[in-house]
């Protein structure tokens, strides 16, 4: 089963929201999944704690196994979950730190929320640099799906002259 990492080196792009919504949709469609919150802010881990309380109080929600895993243990933990046949969703932190970098080589797919703002496009350049580094390793990525979370009629000008 696939490992899907939601990654951007900028915070506030919607990574945790997309991960939570994708998790709920997959579980509701009958898939067996687990969510890994690799962000020290623990947004998804805390979201799931509230969800578990709602289930305990009788809410008709499907449980979503959610784990907070960091750095050096992330790669082995993902491998264990894949062996169980789970779809693994990873909420990567919005910063270029060891947790972010550990979440990338485990991914079969990387989803990158990005609005057409200069700050988010600059962060995207940072992320693409990290992925280029990974391409030097034995594992290569077939695709990098990038989707805009907002639309604009004009692309902002970046300092290096590229759009």
Distance from N terminus to C terminus (CA atoms, Å) equals 35 Å
Question: Order of strands across the biggest sheet?
Answer: 3-2-4-1-5-6
Write down the CATH topology: Rossmann fold
- The run of helices and strands is EHEHEHEHEHE
Number of domains: 1
Q: Give the C-level CATH assignment.
A: Alpha Beta
Strand content: 15-25%
What share of the residues lie within helices?
Answer: 25-40%
Q: What is the correct CATH architecture?
A: 3-Layer(aba) Sandwich
The average pLDDT score comes to: 83
Gyration radius from CA atoms, angstroms? 16 Å
> Count the strands?
6
Helical run tally? 5
Unreliable residue runs: none
**Morphology call:** globular
For the report, how would you describe the main beta sheet?
6 strands, parallel
Structural class of the secondary structure composition? alpha/beta
CATH superfamily: P-loop containing nucleotide triphosphate hydrolases
């Amino acid at each position: 089963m696939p490992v899907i990492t939601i990654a951007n080196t900028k915070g506030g792009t919607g990574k945790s929201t997309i991960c939570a919504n994708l998790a709920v949709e997959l579980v509701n469609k009958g898939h067996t999944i687990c969510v890994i919150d690799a962000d020290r802010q623990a947004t998804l881990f805390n979201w799931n704690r509230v969800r578990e309380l709602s289930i305990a109080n009788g809410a008709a929600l499907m449980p979503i196994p959610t784990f907070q895993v960091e750095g050096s243990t992330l790669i082995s933990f993902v491998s264990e979950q894949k062996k169980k046949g789970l779809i693994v969703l990873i909420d990567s932190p919005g910063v270029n730190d060891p947790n972010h970098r550990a979440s990338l080589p485990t991914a079969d797919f990387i989803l990158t929320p990005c609005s057409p703002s200069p700050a988010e496009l600059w962060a995207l350049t940072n992320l693409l640099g990290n992925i280029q580094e990974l391409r030097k390793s034995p594992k290569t990525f077939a695709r990098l799906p990038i989707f805009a979370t907002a639309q604009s009629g004009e692309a902002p000008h970046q300092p290096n002259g590229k759009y």
